[in-house]
Amino acid sequence: MKLKCLWLAAAMLSLPYAANAAVCQAKFFHDGGEIEIVGSGLIQVSAKLNFSQVKKTSTQQCQALVKGYANYALLGMLSGETDVNHVMRVDGVKTSLSNPGVAKKPGDPDVDVQMLSLFGYGEPIRAAGQRFPAQSFRLAIGDPRRGPTTPVTVRMGEKTVGAQQRIETAAGQQSCWPVRYSRGTDPTVVNVRGAIIPLPNIQSQVTDWFCPSLNLVMRQEIMQSGQRSVIEVKSLR
Hints:
Layout: H1 8-13, E1 34-40, E2 43-56, E3 61-74, E4 78-91, E5 94-98, H2 113-116, E6 131-132, E7 135-141, E8 150-156, E9 159-161, E10 165-169, E11 172-185, E12 188-192, E13 195-199, E14 202-211, E15 216-224, E16 227-236
Antiparallel strand pairs: 1-2, 1-16, 2-3, 3-4, 4-5, 6-9, 7-8, 8-11, 9-11, 10-11, 11-14, 12-13, 14-15, 15-16
């Protein structure tokens, strides 16, 4: 079964991200910047994002045109691909995506990059034991060009920071913070080309490995239904 939707792959798979306060200074956030992400296990993903037309007003305010692609397969049941062509805007702890030249319609689900876990905690990590509040976001499942979409709520539990550890990454060994939390969706049904398909609730335990010297989560480990998936940064420039 294949589904297409705005950032469905990224939203469901939670690709690695930079901390909000450091987005504008992240290694990839420049004209010609690029980040490539891969995933294996129950959640398989391949994504490449390219950055251009970068504008920086300050260390807290910036924007860029982000283009690329994301292919994914989830639970061996849902698969799809999406082309990325969005303007990303950063204003302090708020980071959002929008289609160039397309106005948001009333009732459309919000597309906040924190939902995607591309850019996320809202404040710097300072010490083990630090906590970040629970969050919830809406996204739309389905292809609006082919029929109605189904709103789904994604809930992310309170995040807790563990003690720093050294891990292997695409940029070599790094000292990184493990950030642990739960993530889940409620069961629903989706309309796929006229067919009504039940979508079960998806519950998982997540560990982000945030590497402060790179201002990035370089790896995300996901436990779901007793099986482990890993999503990580393959390359960045």
